[in-house]
Amino acid sequence: MIFVSHLSYLFSHLLPFSLNSLKSSVLLSIFFILSSLPFSYRVKCWKLNGFLLFPCFLITLFWLLVRKWVDSTRR
Predict the structure, then answer these.
(1) What is the pLDDT averaged over residues 41-68?
(2) CA angle 59, 62, 66 (to 5 degrees)
(3) In the chain, where are the structural domains located?
(4) Residue 12 CA to chain centroid, in angstroms?
C-alpha cells in the first residue's frame, strides 16, 4: 500500500492552497485518513471495498484537476 501513500503525497501537491468547497475538504480528509491507516488494515480495506474506494479516488482526483484547470484559465 505504498502506492496509496505516494498518491496522497501527489494529491496534496496538486491541490490549491485554499479550498473553497466543503465537498473537496471532506473527500480529502477521508482520503488522507485512509492513507494513514496501518498497512494491514489498508490491505483489508482495499480488498473489501476497493471497488468503491478506487473509483471514488479517481473521480475526486479528476474533479480537482478540472477545477484547478478552470481556475487557472479564469486568471
Answers:
(1) 65
(2) 140
(3) 25-75
(4) 8
